[in-house]
Amino acid sequence: MVKIPLCTLFVLAAAAILAGCAVYPAVQVAGHAMTGYDAAILVDEYLPRTNVTGGKLTAADTDRILQRRLRERLRFRNHTGLTAHVIDANAYLVGQVQGRNQADQAIRTAATVQGLKTITCKFYNAPTDHQTREGATLHARLITLLKRTDWLPEVDLRVVTVGTNVVLIGKTEDFRQKSEALAIASEVGGLTEVVDYISVRDPLPGDKLAGR
User: The pTM is what?
Assistant: First the structure.
C-alpha cells in the first residue's frame, strides 16, 4: 500500500478546487474571453436576490441594487446620455440618443438586469447648446418651486431635464402630491414637455380605516 503524505493530499485537494473554479473564467462569449459585463450577468444568476447576512432586503434596498446594476451596465455600454432610475423594481430610461439603433441597444442592455418588472423609456434627440442652457435654468426654477411644498422631503421624486423637456419620476404618498407636482411643472414657462412617471403609494389598511 502506497502512503501519500497528508500535505500532498492538501495540495491535490486545492488543485481540484481551483480546477472547479476555473470553469467560470473559461466561459467564452462570441469567441472572446468573458468581459466584466458578462461577469456581471453571471453574478446576477448566482448571488442571492432577497436575503443578505443579518436580515432581509427591503423594497428600497432592492431598488437601489437594481438601479446601481442598471446604471453600471448602461455606462459599460457607453450610454452616457441616459439616466436610469428604478422605482418599485420598474426601470425608467430617460435621456438623449443618437438614433433608433442606440435606443434599441439601451433597452436590450436594461433587459439583462434580472429583477426588473418593466422598462419605460423616454428618449430625445440631442438638444442644441442653447436648449441645454435654457433647460438648466428651467430645471433650477422647477426645483425651487417644488421645494416650497411641505411634502417634498417625504417622497421620492426625481426631476430629469433633457433640453427644455422635463420628466418627473418617483412615488408620492397620495394623488394630491402627484397633482401638485405636475401643476407646478406645468406652470414653469418655457418647458416644451412635462412627462409624468409618478406613481402613488398603495393605501395601507390604516389609511382606509382613517378615511371612514
Answer: 0.71
